[in-house]
Queue: 3 jobs
Job 1
Amino acid sequence: MTHTIFIDGEAGTTGLEIRERLEARSDLELILLGDRRREVEARREALNAADAVILCLPDEAAKEAVAMIETPEVRVIDASTAYRVDPAWTYGFAEMAQNLGQMGQRERIASATRVSNPGCYPTGFIGLIAPLVRAGLVPADWPVTVNAVSGYSGGGKAMIAEFEAGTPTPFRAYGLSLKHKHVPEMTRHTGLSRDVLFAPAVGNYRQGMLVEVPLHLSALPGSPSVAAVHDVLAQTYDGERFVEVASLSATEAMSGLDPEGLNGTNRMRLHVFGDRSGGQARLVALLDNLGKGASGAAVQNLNLMLALDEGAGLS
């Protein structure tokens, strides 16, 4: 059986990456509008004719597109931030909330008609912290800080053009108002009750990211060890295809982490750095902001929603 897919906003960075992952597959047929992609009626027809729609649009445009869909069977994946904390939408992080003795996120995605694709920074942060909150190692009201750096492709067309013109600084901190749009998503889906303190930055390279959470283990209730933190993460993601936890022996041998280390993949690797006898740890997620942080996750969600091999078209 061939499923029809319409990517609304395929000319953007995420849309292009998704199309590249889908167009070679024989089990999918893309609905392409060509020069008609900006015509409202052509889009409306495509939105209602497809088996599944992937929205790669700004928030308000995504909401307008959803309002145009009248066919109840159409399944929608939205890559914007418009619905990431909307309880009527399923959050599209398949590996989240597993091993809980109840329906996991993967099963929720598979049965959903409306899925919100996670943000790239939140994917790394939630992957690190949600298991620790569920396990009780990090209290829900704990003041958590997350530092992160991404390639400039995550900033949209204007930032890409600026950096590729060869004039930008090598590193730039931003989100200095502490009102970044990812904060509600990061807080809600980790189970935290206190807003996280998010300190993002962009580097002068195209894609790839590191998301880091420093923890004073000695200040946490029970003073959990580095090994205890690592064990929770390792057990949470045991057997997962796209999320892995580096061993403590591997992290001890590392002298640094390359943010481009998983580029072109849908994989995420989690690291727990620290002195096993000490009271501090640095938790670091490595992923491609255009892979597991965007287009890869969208394809993974699409596969789940259409009851296909979850890893089809992904590496």
Job 2
Amino acid sequence: MTTTLTRRHFIITSAALFSAPLATAAAAQDAVEFDFDAAVTRHERAGSNPWGLHPRFMPTRVAHREGLRPGDIHVDPVAKYLYHIGSDGTAMRYGVAVGRSGMQSPGTFTVGRKAEWPSWTPTANMIAREPHVYAQFAGGMAGGPENPLGARALYLYRGNADSMLRIHGTPQPWSIGTSASSGCVRLVNDHVMQLYEQVPLGTRAILHSPWR
């Protein structure tokens, strides 16, 4: 079945697609495998919000309408939400940052690769567009607390080709809820760590359009 990816379609259906929150998300997962996980991320305890996010951008379980495929990811660039569809009629909703105006790339993708504390290299287009910002990283940047991809990254593919789009963490949690990136979808490190554990390779990710 072909998915319509216009903003009009998403906004018209979103009221029925996702209802009011069912419950506040529980405390984030405690298990860590890397020193960076313990040193950098600040896991939620009893609903705490150490990043000062607006409450609506905290992980929240919501109901969704029938017909959505369990396991899929949907990104609403207007409301700045990512939804991970469950198999019980609910979805986990996370606040995100999305691409700046003109840099969003709506479409249907699959998760073709996953990485923990990934390295990062700006694309040629990024370097050409803003050399004063990105040229210094043309040789790549090792994974770590200051890396723009944060604690985890889901690499979005079209077929067998890397789209260069990512769903990833960020060292800039204050950007959540804004249009700040060069096209990728950002989550707070703690939140992308939660999502990462629930998303297998091959997961479908639908980035909806902000335009009609």
Job 3
Amino acid sequence: MVAKITTGNNLYGALAYNQEKVDKEKGKVLATHIVREPMDGIFNVAATAEDLQRWMPSHFRCEKPVIHISLNPDIKDNLTDEQLSEVAAKYMDRMGWGSQPYIVFKHSDIEREHIHIVSVQVSPDGKKINDKLRNERSVAITEELEKEYGLHPAKGQKRSDEWQFTPVDYTKGNLKKQIGAVVKPAASMYRFQTLGEFRALLTLYNIGIEEVRGERGGKSYRGLLYTALDADGKQAEATPLKSSLFSKSVGFNVLEKQMERSGAKIEKNKNKEHLRHRVAEAFLDAPTEKQLRENLRTFHVDLYLRRNDTGRITGVTFIDHEKRCVLNGSRLGKEYSANALNERYPEAMQKSGADLHTLSGEADRRQISTVNKQKKRPKGRSI
């Protein structure tokens, strides 16, 4: 069982997110603790938020009083609603939040049923509940619960499911070996439907990809060049390498067929629904682009943004490393498109060129390997 903990200050948003699942008959309220239940059994977001807020004094110093937890059993686990409620109560008690008011929701919008818990981490005296070593304790507690309920263990399984590549460092030479060690397994392991989506994935590892067209012997041809990117996301001073130097599997023809098949696989495996669920949850308490990226990374998702020289976002791509799926934001819905993110995060367009580079640099490169260094956002590449 995997636990995800996020904190924020938008109590109404956390409750509304879960209530939306209930309204769409994709979830239900499973249990409550020190929260008044309505006579008709129909919870109201505003009333529930008011009830939770009433627990806290009017003045407190905690910047992020709201806690939003998801507990995710393995897809092979089959727990009853009563058992899920018990798991939620035991988890909250052992984490030190058992005396706080909370509400437990069960979600069934994806194949793996799971629960969400919304609570507050400020006690009636205005002090924040001690959360020292929160993540370490959470892992230990979920392992205890796995044993108690005979659940499939998550420890180790998650690590084996996540493939880690070493980002390319053009200063070390031997680019053929470095690039090949990334592009070949990445092409076979991830699903993507456009060359731009594949480009977004490779950019995380300091690799660029360009399509070339020409004519040879009276016949037209299309090919791919793989390049190393420098710290600014620009093509490094190194010779581009033809895809044929690696294998046919990363050439244009094979990738084109693979991209056609990926659409069916994404639909069959419900990858879009899974990723949309994760992204929607990450947006809950994300007043800034930086916070959004941090929230997404708790779900093993990276965000790739392409911006023009004015700072306006012109492309959005989400990279789900858990399901190994790459999707443009517009595929998930208009609320995750470039226009929507521009409206949500307009501050970037107000920055100068230098400020913009600094703002986006750290966030756009995932720290997938311990040898990976902080990189800056690539510019001028189509996605």
